[in-house]
Please model this.
Amino acid sequence: MNSQLKWKFVLIAAAILLCIYGVIGLPAFPTSGAQIKQNLADRIKLGLDLKGGSHLVLQVQVEEAIGQRCDQTIDLLTRQLHDKHIGFGEIRRVDDTHILVRNVDPATSADFRDLINSQLTDWTTSPAAGENNGYLLTLKPSVIANLRTQTMDQSLETITRRINGLGLTEPTIAFTGRGDDEILVQLPGEGDPTRAKSVIQAGGQLALTLVADDQTYPSQSAALAAHGGVLPQGTEIVPGKSDTGSASDQSQVYYILDRAPIVTGQDLVGATPQPSTDYPGQFEINFHLSTAAAARFGPFTETNIGKRMAIVLDHKVYTAPTIRGRIEDNGQITGNFSEDQAKDLALVLRAGALPASIKYLEERTVGPSLGADSIREGVRASVGSLIVVMIFLVIYYRLSGVNAVVALLLNLLILVAFMAFAGAVLTLPGIAGVVLTIGMGVDSNVLVFERIREELRNGKLPAPSVDVGFDRAFRTIIDTHITTLVSAAFLFLFGTGPVKGFAVTLTIGLIANLFTSIYVSRVIFDYHLSKMDRQAQLSI
Amino acid sequence: MEFFHGVNIDWMGKAKYFVTLSLILLAVGWVSIYKRVVADHGTLYGIDFRGGTLVYVRFGGKPPIDQIRKGLQQAGLANSTIQGISDSRSVGSQNDVVIGLEQKQNDESLDAGKQKILDVLHSTFGTSNAGKPDFNSVTPSDLAALLTQKDPLLLGPTAADRYTQLANRLIAARDTQHSGIVSNFDELKNVDGATSPVIATLQNNFSLSNFAIRDAEIVGPKVGSQLRRQAFLATLYALGGMLIYIAFRFEWVYGAAAVIAVFHDVLITLGFFSLFHYEISLTVIAALLTLVGYSMNDTIVIFDRVRENLRIMRRESLTEIVNKSINQTLSRTILTSGLTFLTVLVLYLLGGEVLRAFSFAMVVGVVVGTYSSFGIAAPIVVVWNKYHGGRGVAVRVGSAAEKRVPAVARR
Model:
């Protein structure tokens, strides 16, 4: 064997060893059969369609967060205008990103513009069309874009914290295709996503608010009527459960609360479920406040002893106990919870609130048994057909067929190893990519062999025939492979989930195929030729 | 061993028959597609592209379809569909039923339909041990949590790991040995670690219904149309990319011919799909992409040979050259396509229900894709060059070796 050929062998052997290591040697070097099995299971990740589990796509209602910003600005602006004695007719919300201020007193319009320019830097002001002394405030596009990313990032973080709190194995939480407001949640092995879904969807906005009016009312209009149709400044009506204390009384009542909460969910440092001492059999959530919040909360409760404080969760009053003494840094939320409900609520409170509500767009659950069936049957069929193809290649091309079989097996090994190295996930469409790879692998070998046969028929000796055969077929193989790679690249760029999975396995497979069917196969031929007599017949 | 050596077929002479055949296939297929999309309100699209709810249920015995239908009607789900999967090749699947429901825009939540279907199943087929969770639909993690809590093996509170493993083995036994449905807890006695206290714990804490939910898919209507659009666009871009590459390597008419042929394959395969009452889902899109790859591969092999022969055979007409190129590559075409056909046929016959639609598309696609290379793509190149008086010379300088070959003058 000449030295050039020797080096080629070394290179191929190194590639094979590296691939075998990639398949069975990661993440820990295998010392036992069980470890190899474990490594395989760790590195060759199966998609939900093969393994079973839940797949959820949810949409964050980003517009809500923008609308909230608008509402907050209106609140702020109203207060500031009052404080600075700037006269105006009305402040009206036009839509999520526009506020109309009507009839600003011309005498104070300079003050008004100053206020806007100094305080509301996120907004641009322009004279409102068709209005006398009216101004239209528009939220800046850059601010909207910022708000969108912030809302999405925060939603993703919150959902991640919540899902992690559920203690499921290897969940995936990520932004996903279509539009810029969607999040994908995958829960492998989870056959019933009901609980996870409710935990994800819970708003989790906690507020402790002073009750402005000790009465509760059966309806919103009754609450309004009691105050002569106008609510006291800085208060709002919030629905809640009746507070008679009996679990059977579930009727809805309305409270009048201060608009500004004393403590919000952001002030929490912990929340744990515990059995209720007052209502046996029920559970409640015990929460702890941060030091900063406790420093506010202590003096506040002391000055308001005897008044009632509402515990509001997602804009609904759960309880409104009377403050009996100074409270420093903890409290309870009671509300006829079961143990599981209390557990999940505590988890949601710990994880923090969602910046906007969410809506489910897609939900798929693959039972583990269906996943297992599809793997078993799919793998059995694939292996079976692969064996048939290989037997045929050996019969049809004899010793050269063995060469093709080696190239095909190596192609598969490289493909699996690459996927293991990259931690790629194998899905059903991914298997489609493998099928195409095998097909093109077989084709590459057939192309080369048919070309060699043609040259042999034309009376050439084995060595030059192999030479010309590979040369000619090389161009064809390159063109077919690059064309398919180009399409795979487009599919990867523009496709979603399954289409992407197809593109990934196809790309890896085709590159591996170029190596095995052109390089490795050639080296084997060269070795064989170097061993045999120049005039001897080639087994093809 | 060798087949198909030295054939001499006038392929281009038969081009008009090929084109007629293609037109007939296209017409038949697309009448069927039209019927299913327009007349039957889009039943061609699977749940992925249409939006809706699908629940796969496996029963312990022959599915009581009439009872299910009655239960669904009583719950106000009269527009639901119930379909049996009669797949004799897959163990247990003859007891499977798919319940489908259209997604309505005004449903209060995405999974309202699924919940209703589950309620109907539980109330119709619930067992006497009602109120307790159903062992046939419990997940490994929930089972592990329960076992750890009840601790039938008296291992103490730190035994969560061992119970997790036991739970996994129990669920695996349920899903593999009993194809998803356990009818009696004693069936689990041969599971490693399932001693009588464990079986007793299961008996006390679970009910056994005679059905199990195997799979549930819910796709919102908006997502459905978005997915459809996205898959369509991705495919279109991919075709565009291939057109440009082939145009660059050969000549633009070759690229156009190859893309038209591939397009033709996709359309015909879709037609067959509709005729055989399969539904188009995301997995089928993957199959269509695969067939695009195959067909393109096949076409390029022939074009590549044409390009080579154009340089060697200076005297012959393009028609003769194309015929000769197809004949020269015929052996490889039949071999490759035959082997691929074999592979996907095995996949179709033995690959299980999940791969059924996928492999059907491939079986049709391999045949059509191979045929279109000589039946559609090659004739387009010949006819185009005939009308433009050219010989279709496709010498584009690709490699250094090619540069040494003097370029043949065009036209």
